[in-house]
Amino acid sequence: MLRAETDHRVANHLMMLSSYVRLQGRHIARDGVVDRAAVSLFARSVDAQIHAIARLHRRLMTNVNDQSSDLGPLLHEVVACFAIDPETCAVVEDLDPACSVRMDQLLPISQIVNEAVTNSLKYAFRGTRPGRLTVRCLPLPSGDLRVEIGDNGDGLPAALPAGTDGGFGIGLMRDLARQLDASLAFDSGPDGLTVRLTVPRSSD
Ligand SMILES: Nc1ncnc2c1ncn2[C@@H]1O[C@H](COP(=O)(O)OP(=O)(O)OP(=O)(O)O)[C@@H](O)[C@H]1O
Ligand SMILES: [Mg+2]
Q1: C-alpha to C-alpha distance for 123 and 160, rounded to whole angstroms
Q2: What average pLDDT score do residues 52-64 get?
Q3: CATH assignment, 2-199
Q4: Residues, CB-to-ion distance under 5 Å, ligand 2
Q5: Which atom of ligand 1 is closest in space to residue 165's alpha carbon?
Q6: Helix, strand, or coil here: 41?
Q7: pLDDT digits over 134-164, tens only?
Q8: SS3 label, residue 23
Q9: Average pLDDT, stretch 22-47?
Q10: DSSP for 159-197?
């Protein structure tokens, strides 16, 4: 029974990844010309998601009765998959060990982080100033969980005011936040963009 349940959950996650690759692939193709940096970033983003699924699979197989898991180590591994060149961008991680989430919340949260990191690498670090990417997770006094991804780029362009749906990535982040019953905010200004996710406290 437990083995079947584990396989079922992992198969669902793989189906989710398959749709992601198909949708993103179409999106890239729609854009016409694809540059090498974009393909490299897409590959690293997919790698990070496969890594997250593999990690969850291992976790479900070895601790089959666990209902929750630490978020910090997963986010650390997701960011590591992007192999960010320290010459381009310093990565600052502030991952509180007290961030525990339900198993079914792990992948949606890691995918939101994945999209936000992808966007920062794509848009934020093109200038001459040294880049900085901050990834944080912490429990709030209310018991809710806060996850933040911030960069020191130029923020969202004026033509895309925070609060609009944006492109595929921001749309996906919004869908996943809805699925998590979480709130998602884009704090944008001349000092950069911070994507802020607030996940309600688990009820289990
Ligand atoms: N960190 C950021 N810094 C500056 N601009 C950003 C940042 N993140 C997103 N944007 C802007 O918001 C727009 C919408 O982002 P979104 O992720 O939805 O789409 P995309 O990255 O253009 O395409 P896709 O996510 O499908 O690859 C981007 O085109 C970009 O102009
Ligand atoms: Mg994007």
Answers
A1: 13
A2: 83
A3: 3.30.565.10
A4: 119, 169
A5: 18
A6: helix
A7: 999 999 999 999 999 999 999 998 866 555 5
A8: helix
A9: 78
A10: TS-BTB--SHHHHHHHHHHHHTT-EEEEEEETTEEEEEE
Least confident of 11-15, 32-36, 121-125, 137-141: 32-36
Of residues 118, 71, 107, the one with CA closest to residue 179: 107
Residue 141 CA to ligand 2 centre (angstroms): 31
Band (pLDDT 50/70/90 cuts) for residue 67 is confident
**101 class by beta-carbon count within 10 Å (0-12 exposed, 13-18 middle, 19+ buried):** buried
Indicate which atom in ligand 1 lies nearest the CA of residue 170. 18
pTM of the entire structure?
0.91
Cα 202 to Cα 196: distance, rounded to the nearest angstrom: 18
Taking the centre of ligand 2 as the mean of its atom positions, its distance from the CA of residue 154, in whole angstroms, is 15
Query: For ligand 1, is residue 152 a contact (CB within 6 Å)?
Result: no
d(CA 124, CA 104): 31
d(CA 201, ligand 1 centre) in Å? 29
C-alpha to C-alpha distances, 126 to 89, 113, 174, nearest whole angstrom: 10, 20, 25
The string of pLDDT tens digits covering residues 80-118 is 999 999 988 999 999 999 999 998 899 899 999 999 999
Per-residue tokens: 111: 């995918």
Instruction: Supply the DSSP symbol for 47.
Output: H
